[in-house]
Amino acid sequence: MPVATTTYFQNSPERPSYSTSPPSPDRKRSTKREDKWIIQHGSKLHSLGRDKAPYPFSYNREVLDMSCTDHALMNRLKGSVSFINFKGDPPRRCLDLGTGLGDWVVDAAKEWPDCTFVGYDLVNVQIPLFALEDSIASRIEWVHGNFLRQKLPFDDDEFDHVHIHGLAFAVPENKWHSLYQEVYRVLGPGGTVEVIEEDAIFPTLPRWFTAPLNAPLPRAQMGPDDSVEESAIARLPVPSSLPHDHALLEHLFCSVFHSRFLNPTPSSTLPSYFTAFFGHVLSPPVINFPMPPIAPLQLTRPGAIQPGEPRRLSDASECTSSSKRSSFSTGSSELTGFGSKRTRQERSESVSTAASSVSMATCLAAAAAGSGGGCTCRAQHMAAYVQEEGTRIGGAAAVELFPVCNVSGMNEHTLFFQLRRAVGQVLAVKEAMWEELKEKIEKDGHALLAYGWEPADFDPESSRHKFDAMLEQYKNDMQIRMSLWHAVEKTAGWKAPRRDPLSKPELLEQKRLREAIVLAQQSGKVQDMGGPCRSLRLLTGVKVV
Q: What is 7-195's CATH number?
């Protein structure tokens, strides 16, 4: 059966020129290439080939929204649109290279009322200027082009500040020198440049965490009239020899960057390129955001308990000063879940996504108990960040550049949102990962046998179906790990919505999942959750003549 064609070109609706000031006569006008898109399996991609523009991320709504929330985080950290202290003399002409939506430009225009701005990007996704106040829109211009194929269309010494955030995965390793050379050219003497970049990280889950999700519901607990659709609970088999359930996706994710000659860890290499062009360089230590703690299990909601459901679950370690053992009690409460047609992931989310009366330290202690360390209750919340020693440039002044006090004020619940961004980055390159998989099937298909694939999986239709199933399984598992409802309840005070009553087989499955997750937390190790879910690097410099 032939595979349905899912790749097509799309032109954006005709958009008027939003720039209120005309470009200079010698500046090349933008072509309409920035308005063309490739829609592939639901992903909105730029229409340039990977050789011309290797940027692998999609431009879907959720990806663009993610950049907005990240910009809001940066503003919260520094209390300003810039980490640089201009001491009452802000820039008068500013370039935002790789502006994306242009939200940084809009905020900067509000903070610096005497400054004019240019936002430069490959594609036309910027905020329409007609949607802004005239006092803001009149000082902003959007310009489109590909800095990898042409020089920046700006005059020498035109700007006195250049802002760069999240550009690393659009620049091949051999292009940084020429890019910074162009930034140096358009920056005026004494002008400042600010760079914020992050590493590409694939968040993983240890086997002890995913094992309860893999285990089938014991059929002995189900009556002859009870059934759960096999398609709703089936998971792809993964060889036990692999380090974790999503090892193939991690391999494809890393291949995306290597095949495009993009450095997945720019935090380690950018300083050498940056310091070759700019002086008075300051860079605080690399900031690592660790994986969030395991959220407490959602036990119950107020209301009547479902018939036949026991009121207490199996015992679990609870972190108290005396390290006493106690069982989770449901009290007189209603079990919450989803309708019988929902998937195992959706039902299991009810186990772990919302808040409960169990403290965060409870689950951390339960996980630590299996490592031989006993119950180590902490009076303070876990650190929201970790500084990577030995990565600082510029002495004490570099340390002062990053507002550590503001980061320290962030509680552990914000780490769930950092993990959400990291997972979102993985999902945003899914079509680039698919291209890597197709190439691997064509050139080295037998290597996939080690990941549990079979020769029958190699035809185009089967391979795409299996790839989509792998991604969906990863997304579902990470949603359980992220527990966003718990984070939202703790940070914003929202309450998780009530859910439909569960059917009898779903009640049995949820009970098994709860007990299995509690047992896994007791036997697992906190350190198995891996390294950071996000790493940030900040660099500032000055054009010294």
A: 3.40.50.150
